[in-house]
């Protein structure tokens, strides 16, 4: 896309809306006057999203028509750190961002390939936050440095040290199994709890707190999982979490390409009683992939990598690196709310750009 038909930066002030038009003043001095009469629902969504991004102080990438005044697509920026770059000059580069479980790529045929790769390398070396804008398929469009607000980076809680596994005697294992059975629920109750959290899904064109953006499965699973655990605990349930690491691809009707690719994923689990003596099974609660509770094996199988590894954790682990060498907590749910806010915006932007999910062609 030619640079003159795009804008990447912050809005000067919140958009001004009337019955006929939406006026947006850009950081580079341009002013967009968008016709609000063609599609009032879309125009209202654009106004709401731009106002929220201005409130948060987040950059946005706008694809403009040839006249430089009419909005065609909107891409909120992801503010992250660059963790790793895989691939060299002249190749597609796989970009690992912190924290993000989506698979991001810089395509070698990007018109700004050299400039973008240099910006990503500077971000990786400095470990400073960058704002990254990308397409619906997570192909990188723009990168720019991002200055932290005065209050500093989000509080991700305290690191948790990994404890070595302790081999218990058979009678201690049996006692633990009997005692832990108390946290198990019936299959009927598990279904009710699944429906409880799934019912918090967002309206795609007008997502509002405290909804959970299940309809944007691409990214943000750690925030969704933590919020689901909070809701489950409020009912008296005792969830845990399951983490999967691998080269993951999951089919979904909630992405225009009908699939999402991840490097890892996480969801809550519940212990569910079965018919045999003290029988139980960990069932996964993941409305981004399923319409009901499923066994771990089913959850893993849906993500396309037979060699992927599964790891369980206490529900309080907010983020966990592969192998568990680095973990973070979020006891006050501050970071959880920030993650949910970010991906509500991404869901709203996708709904503006290509229509709201689910997509009938999938």
Walkthrough of the structure:
The structure is a single chain. The chain is of the alpha+beta class. The chain has 3 domains: 3-76, OB fold (Dihydrolipoamide Acetyltransferase, E2P), CATH 2.40.50; 79-145, OB fold (Dihydrolipoamide Acetyltransferase, E2P); 170-354, C8orf32 fold, CATH 3.10.620. The chain is 26% helix and 28% strand. It has 7 helices and 18 strands. It has helices at residues 40-56, 113-126, 170-180, 187-198, 221-234, 296-301, 334-354, and strands at residues 6-9, 16-17, 21-25, 31-35, 60-64, 71-76, 78-86, 93-98, 104-106, 130-134, 140-145, 240-251, 259-273, 280-284, 294-295, 309-314, 317-320, 327-329. A 5-stranded antiparallel β-sheet has the order 9-8-7-10-11. A hairpin with a 5-residue loop joins strand 10 and strand 11 (140-145). The longest helix is centred in the last third of the chain and has 21 residues, at 334-354. The relative contact order is 0.13. The model is unreliable at 151-166 (pLDDT under 50).
């Amino acid at each position: 896309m030619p640079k003159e038909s795009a804008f990447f930066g912050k809005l000067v002030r919140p958009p001004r809306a009337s019955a006929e038009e939406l006026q947006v003043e850009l950081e580079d001095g341009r002013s967009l006057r968008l016709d609000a009469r063609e599609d009032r629902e879309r125009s209202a969504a654009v106004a709401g999203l731009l106002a929220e991004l201005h409130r948060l102080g987040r950059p946005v990438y706008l694809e403009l028509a040839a006249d430089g005044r009419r909005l065609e697509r909107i891409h909120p920026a992801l503010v992250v750190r660059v963790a790793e770059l895989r691939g060299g000059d002249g190749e597609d580069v796989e970009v690992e961002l912190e924290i993000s479980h989506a698979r991001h790529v810089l395509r070698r045929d990007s018109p700004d390939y050299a400039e973008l790769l240099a910006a990503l390398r500077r971000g990786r070396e400095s470990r400073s936050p960058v704002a990254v804008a990308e397409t619906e398929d997570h192909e990188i469009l723009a990168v720019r440095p991002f200055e932290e607000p005065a209050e500093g980076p989000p509080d991700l809680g305290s690191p948790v040290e990994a404890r070595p596994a302790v081999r218990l005697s058979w009678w201690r294992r049996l006692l633990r199994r009997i005692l832990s059975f108390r946290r198990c629920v019936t299959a009927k109750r598990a279904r009710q709890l699944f429906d409880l959290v799934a019912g918090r899904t967002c309206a795609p064109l007008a997502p509002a707190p405290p909804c959970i953006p299940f309809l944007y499965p691409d990214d943000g699973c750690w925030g969704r999982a933590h919020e689901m655990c909070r809701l489950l605990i409020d009912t008296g349930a005792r969830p845990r979490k399951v983490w999967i690491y691998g080269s993951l691809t999951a089919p979904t009707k909630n992405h225009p390409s009908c699939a999402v690719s991840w490097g890892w994923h996480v969801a809550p689990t519940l212990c569910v009683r079965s018919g045999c003596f003290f029988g139980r099974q960990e069932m996964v609660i993941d409305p981004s992939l399923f319409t009901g509770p499923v066994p771990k094996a089913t959850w893993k199988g849906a993500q396309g990598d037979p060699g992927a590894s599964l790891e369980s954790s206490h529900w309080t682990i907010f983020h966990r690196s592969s192998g568990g060498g680095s973990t973070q907590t979020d006891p006050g749910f501050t970071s959880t709310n920030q993650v949910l806010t970010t991906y509500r915006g991404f869901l709203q932007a996708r709904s503006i750009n290509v229509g709201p999910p689910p997509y009938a062609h999938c």
